[in-house]
Amino acid sequence: MNAILGIESSCDETAAAVLIDGVLGSNVVASQEVHAQWGGVVPELASRAHQEHIVPVVQQALEQAGVSATDLSAIAFTRGPGLIGALLVGACFARSMAQALNIPLLAVDHVQAHVMAHFIRDGEDHHVPSFPFLNLTVSGGHTQLVLVRSPLEMEVIGSTLDDAAGEAFDKGAKVLGLPYPGGPLVERHAREGDPHRFKLPVPSITGLDFSFSGIKTAFMALVQRGEQAQPGFVEAQRADLCASLQNAIIDHLLAKVRRAIRDHDITQVGIAGGVAANAALAARLGELAQREGAILFVPKREYCTDNAAMIATAGQFLLEAGHLATLDTVPVPRLY
Q: d(Cα 95, Cα 76) in Å, to the nearest integer?
């Protein structure tokens, strides 16, 4: 039996998963609700919560998979990018456990692991992309266009120059008085709104890079002007504001994906990361892919947000290639 334990602790989710002979045996995630009252992730509070959660989360993952620690063949952990304090908790735990069990240690790139979410095997039939393919990785901390040539060969051909797409969603939600995390709430309100009610600027960035700071700033100014001119503006127009913000962000994402498809003669497109759970984005990206003669791949919703199943899956490819980490491997908060 080949059993790999994956540990994810890059931000505000403490997660552990076990792969048994390449098939997911468990996937446990403990979210940190403490950040909601602060309107965003507080790094010090995240680190403390990881320290509290990591032992019970790992234990639960092992129990659900029906294995013990001594059955493990390797341990994969998130090396970065992420919050340094949060990463340290997962890295120190993984290193100590690997040393105690005398088994291989696997250091995983969190953003590349999101791409590998397409290849999580959980016992259910689903189509996976073949290599090469284009992946749009969108989350609260990252927005990238990646040419994926193999599980271990990925080229970033476009990335955000400032804010990530998920960050733009969350900051827009905060301006509207919506609690953290705001992205899913913006999506929910947007369903009832007119996406063309308020016009936001289209970023004019050359090449395949992204920029969301202009959209965010324009949206903040729109809300402030509206409230000054008509108190209660946000409450009355919340659905249209959310729909307009979401529409502007998606428009920018799709414009770059369209260009990448044409520039690189792409026939397969994947989407991954927390914002990939946005149904409107997935639907519009699917329409774009169809128009461009490409096939779209979207992981299950639970594999889009931060999870350890993707870490274990990425770790399996590292193990098969013999790319092992040493016990003195340290986390790196910024890999890009």
A: 9
The domain of 268 spans 133-299
Burial of 132 (0-12, 13-18, 19+ CB in 10 A): middle
Q: pTM of whole model > 0.70?
A: yes
Q: What's the burial of 33, exposed, middle or buried (CB within 10 Å: 0-12/13-18/19+)?
A: exposed
Residues 176 and 40 both lie in one domain = no
Residues 141, 220, single domain; the answer is: yes
Residues 6+ apart with CB under 8 A from 80: 10, 87, 109, 110, 331, 332, 333, 334, 335
According to DSSP, the residues that pair with 30 across neighbouring strands are 14
Q: What is the DSSP string of 209-237?
A: -B--HHHHHHHHHHHHHHHHHSTTHHHHH
Q: For residue 169, which of 188, 156, 144 has the smallest C-alpha distance?
A: 188
Residue type, 251: D
Over residues 215-246, the pLDDT tens digits come to 999 999 999 999 999 999 999 999 999 999 99
Question: Are residues 215 and 118 part of one domain?
Answer: no
Nearest Cα residue to 92 out of 334, 328, 309, 335:
328
Q: Angle 49-15-154 (CA atoms, 0-180°, nearest 5)?
A: 120
Please answer whether residues 114 and 139 qualify as being in contact, where contact means their C-beta atoms are separated by less than 8 angstroms: yes
Distance CA 279, CA 132 (A): 25
Report percent pLDDT > 90 for the chain. Answer: 87
